[in-house]
Amino acid sequence: MKIKFYFLLLVAFFLKTNAQLYTPDTIDSLITKASKLTDKNKSIFIISEIYNQSDKINYGKGKMRSLFYLISDYNYMGNEKKALELSNKLLEVAQKEKNHLYEVRALIKLANIYAHSNFYNKTEETLEKALSASKNLEGDDYYVAVGNIYRCKSIFEELKNNLPQQLIYDKIALQYCLKINSEKIKQNELVTQYTNLASSYSDIEKSDSAIYYSRQAFIISKKIHTPVTEANALFGMARTYYSADKKDSAIYYYKKVLPLLIKLKNPTKLLILYENMSFMYEELGDTKNFMIYNTKALEQFNSNQVNKKILIDSVSNQILLDKQKEQDTKVYIIISGFAILIIIIIFFTIKLLIRYKKIKELKTITEIGLIEKYEKQLQEKLEIRNSEKEITTVSNISDEKENELIKKLNNFEKREQYLSQETSLSSIASAFNTNVNYLSKIIKKNKDNNFNGYINELRINYITQKLKTNPEYLTYKIAYLAEECGFSSYGYFVNIFKQQTGITPSKFIDYLKKNNNKNM
């Protein structure tokens, strides 16, 4: 791998000074080699140089291929801001070159970025454009493009928590993948699609189907044997076994894929891995490994949040720029001269006012708003749980058994037994004279949460009520409050408290103290 890198680096340097000696075929070959590098930083460096050389000789296909692989690398590394910038650039070059294949690919990349930034209207609009542009394609190009569009639609529905529609779109995407004639291209697409299907089946708790498609993806990935494909397949296996509550298998595959993800620098998958590993080790009672992975998860979460904010700001600016361009085009068609000047002034004035309003609104968000939002969410959860209890049943559990377990859970809550640090899924199941799988399903259905989330929510609700109703608690140290409500780890308590209320325990206490002083 090092030999390949230094060879390509030397070629990139040589290209920089002797672009006139290199043909499009040579550039195509270099792009293919660079795209297979495991080290994404090296890949980005080399492909950027190749793009510059393609631009110098005005080789359109070279520019588009370079941009496409650069976008994929930046996407994988979590640099969505750069991926957004290059996706727009690829779209511009593809439309200029009248290349519908790369136009569709650029639109799909943009749709994925918009979806993960929660700009849903923009996502739907972009996917419709991609579908329209794909009608100009034929053969494998068409099947790959449309398959990717429906795969993106599936991811979009997953983000909206529309699980049935997510599975439908994944099945449609699979049908297009199976129509691909080129065996090499088909294998690459099937690894991704089988992994997506496994995730969709896991989301609706169909473990057998999920495991089947994960294994199919894993088997094919061994034939392709590229770092990214291997990492995606291994990660898919791990997540599937995690969702199926097969901890030994999940831990095995997560440990196997971890070095690859670190080398490939994929922040999204690393966060999921660290969180799931910490949850499993907590349930297994392995405190040492729980603390290791919980710490890594917190560090990765903080890093990802910074990148997400940068991405959202970039997408917002991009959307504003798009609207501005559309408005400017209409203005130039309808009016001219002085009227154009007046409308531009009005447009920018409105834009500045909107921006000022947004800044002002952001500045006015306080701990009070966060606490009110937290209380509202608690009320909504209670209403949802109460309504779901009346109309649904858990598969494979009789109504009588389900009602019995629900009553025991209610008594468990009333007696505040969740405050014990020894509380675990297995200990409660034993006390209730049932098995952990039944109890886990009952909690997930009736409490709208997994076991850890359910216990953590009860504990945080308990301590916030104590702080609100008993002024003496406002004088206690955070470590004491953590122990009081059942947490053995100070840091874990602070993290869970902030996740549920939106602010840290110390800020929550400060707010209550100020509020009490005002009422005196």
Strand content: under 5%
Strand tally: 0
The string of secondary-structure elements, in order, is: HHHHHHHHHHHHHHHHHHHHHHHH
Given helix and strand content, the structural type is: mainly alpha
**Termini separation:** 71 Å
Fraction of residues in H or I helices = over 70%
What radius of gyration results from the CA coordinates?
27 Å
Main beta sheet, described? Answer: none
Number of helices: 24
Mean pLDDT, to the nearest integer, reads 83
The rough form would be described as globular
Question: pLDDT under 50 segments (min length 5)?
Answer: 359-368, 386-394
Keywords: DNA-binding, Membrane, Signal, Transcription, Transcription regulation, Transmembrane, Transmembrane helix
Protein name: HTH araC/xylS-type domain-containing protein
Domain HTH araC/xylS-type: 416-511
Transmembrane segments: 331-354
Description:
There is one protein chain. The protein has 24 helices and no strands. α8 packs antiparallel against α9 and α11 (207-224) packs antiparallel against α12 (227-243). With 520 residues, the chain is mainly α. The model is unreliable at 359-368 and 386-394 (pLDDT under 50). The protein has helices at residues 2-17, 24-35, 40-56, 60-76, 80-97, 100-116, 120-134, 139-159, 163-178, 183-203, 207-224, 227-243, 247-264, 267-284, 287-334, 338-363, 367-391, 399-414, 425-431, 436-446, 451-469, 478-484, 490-501, 505-519. 82% of the residues lie in helices and 0% in strands.
